Amino acid sequence: MERPPRLKPYGRPKGERRGLVLVYTGDGKGKSTAAFGLALRAHGRGLRVRVFQFIKHEGARFGEHRAFAQLGVPVEGLGDGFTWKSRDLERSRALAYAGWQRAKEALLSGAYDLLVLDEITYPIRYGWVPLGEVLEALKDRPPHVHVVLTGRGAPEALLELADTVTEMRKVKHAFDQGVPAQRGIEH
Amino acid sequence: MERPPRLKPYGRPKGERRGLVLVYTGDGKGKSTAAFGLALRAHGRGLRVRVFQFIKHEGARFGEHRAFAQLGVPVEGLGDGFTWKSRDLERSRALAYAGWQRAKEALLSGAYDLLVLDEITYPIRYGWVPLGEVLEALKDRPPHVHVVLTGRGAPEALLELADTVTEMRKVKHAFDQGVPAQRGIEH
């Protein structure tokens, strides 16, 4: 049996207060939900939160959209879901890049304390959103702004720039045992 | 440059609908927030959600508590924060066990569609909550109930029973670079 560690109660933050860059990557479940949970917590602390989703399309109404709407946290789908399916890749590229311009503007404006760039690694990996622009915007952002970026295969230069990086590693997944996606859990 | 995969739009769930056991473990950030994000999503889908926190004390008012209160999702701190600090381990043990009885009752009642047992691995590891009882309750629960369990060092038998397991692996953490905890991000 293990002895419990000595815990200290949480107090007011001491020392430096500054915006962090957090990355959730890896092939396991929990990357986007960890970003949403952080958005929930930050909202609960009165921080100004905005969520951009780079894969979900504009009209998406998954569980998180409904709940964020109830909290008054803006969520924007920047992807093109169905068009993506139709493989109109030039349109996907244009949409992703236009979406990134909106996210960058929000990032640089300083009007938000926490921005979630959900699944942004995919358009970066497909060359639709230039990695260099993302890194520049993160470096140039006002110092109070926290940014959470999610998605598999985060590029090394992004990991280097980040303050906190977690790899969500898949140990096992219900899908692999033939269990279909469950509403309210997977989407 | 990578080619984007062929994505299918999300549809109504097909096939089996059943409650899942999900475990978020490992030493990285994002375990509890992933559970909260899942709770947010499930709530947005109209599922009945309840959150138990095995370390946070009853009066805790972190960001997540305030936001869940706004959503009308019940959150209960079952731990004893400050007493823990004072190392009154017998009281900690009694509190954890009593808290577990409450969680077990909620689990077996079928009155909720998703239960979060946040940081439950710690009282299990300290021997305050018997692992056998947790496994039994998970097996005996009504089939529609989803359960998310979080914390470092999840026991092997729990991983075996789980449908989905993610290890949150710490790649880097702001703390290690001397950046103190940020309000709204860490708590």
Automatic annotation (TrEMBL), chains A, B:
NCBIfam families: cobA, PRK05986.1. One of its GO terms (molecular function) is ATP binding. One of its GO terms (biological process) is cobalamin biosynthetic process. It comes from the Bacteria. It holds the Pfam family CobA_CobO_BtuR. SUPFAM superfamilies: P-loop containing nucleoside triphosphate hydrolases (SSF52540). This is Cob(I)alamin adenosyltransferase. Keywords: Plasmid, Transferase.
